[in-house]
Amino acid sequence: MLVVGAGPAGADLARRLARSQVEVLLVDRLADLRTGAFSSAALPWAALERLELPAEVVASRWSHWQLFGPGDQRRHWASGGPLGVVLEFGALRQWLAQEAGRWGSDLLLGATAHRSEAAPEGMRTHLRLVGGRPIEVISDWVVDATGQERGLIGDPAPGPDPLVEGLGVEWLLELPLERWEPWADRLSFCLGSAWVPQGYGWVFPMQRGRLKVGVCRLLDPARPQPPLGALLASLIERLGLGEHRVLDRHGGLIRSTIGRKEPHRRGRLIGLGDAISTANLLGGEGIRHAMTSSQLLAPLLCQALRQPSLADRLIGASYPRRLRQALGWRWGLSGRLARRTWLGLRGPQADQRLDGLLRGLEHKKRAEDLSALLFDYRFERYGLRALPDLLGWR
């Protein structure tokens, strides 16, 4: 088995397959999995146990929600206990790859996969190492876990459910403890066109004295797109975080369809995680949904290897169906809400509408209710009568 991409989905799949005594080669183009760590990586508490993640990949815990905007407004919800964690993304990737290796998986870093094709022996995948030397890998199956790049499986065909793209930039700041402490136990978001037009900003706590501060927006080719770096610098100053040292700057692209109807398989090539649109556009979440796809795919692949005659039913039919069921019917609603909210967030009228939606949240006294809404997409807790307004149906 060849797994291309050692992100959370690919490395998690490799460890699950190796644990089931499947021979696995895990490949990634990075030479060091701790680098290029673009992901704010906030998870609800229940996901930490469900995904079988250890304390060593956790940077901080949080128990509060804090929303800034539109304008100068501020809203706050607090819980008496932890609601979730922020992961150290580089440490997460490193730990998953090490766990896969501990169970017997091989790891090849600094190798980029260019194409994969059917061969008499199974699948032949063409790789290029850092120095430029080409190599070929023969395997029964190939899993494309290269994220939004979809390096092997390719983009879905043009149609009624196109890819929606978002671009994000994030800085890791080091601050004096007295400036860090007010942010240390909460997830903070900045909403409104005066903060980030057609997007949002965030401040997430990391280890003591460190914050991740970022901005993200959906791409709109029909309108001018202000540079994200300038927006982020302005947001940092406005939040009073100007006295800082930047430890790292990174950015990334999110690309997902809303309906998730793209093919999950091409012959013996299978898509995983963001390569089949498991990144949620509403909050830019990717990790836990991508790892959900690996949890579902691993046992199906093991069974297909034991019983090749069942491969079409297991991988071609059961895998997409089970993933749709796991993500749930609220997935499409959250995508439509994301497109309507973020692409439309430009100017006073949009801010006024957003303010109305946020006022509707103020009667939610419990921070746990806000987590259910924002992490589980339980829009019915907002009020079923409000759903048509939320989704732009009236």
Describe the structure.
The protein is an alpha/beta fold and 394 residues long. It folds into 2 domains: 2-41 and 88-160 and 259-327, FAD/NAD(P)-binding domain; 63-85 and 164-256 and 341-394, D-Amino Acid Oxidase, subunit A, domain 2 (D-Amino Acid Oxidase, Chain A, domain 2). The chain has helices at 8-19, 45-50, 89-102, 177-180, 228-238, 287-306, 311-327, 330-343, 348-361, 367-376, 387-390; strands at residues 2-4, 25-28, 42-44, 58-62, 64-68, 74-78, 84-87, 106-109, 111-119, 122-129, 134-139, 142-144, 164-174, 186-191, 199-205, 210-218, 245-256, 265-266, 269-271. A 7-stranded mixed β-sheet has the order 6-5-14-15-16-13-17, with helices on both faces. Strands 8-2-1-12-19-18 form a 6-stranded mixed β-sheet, with helices on one face. The longest helix is centred in the last third of the chain and has 20 residues, at 287-306.
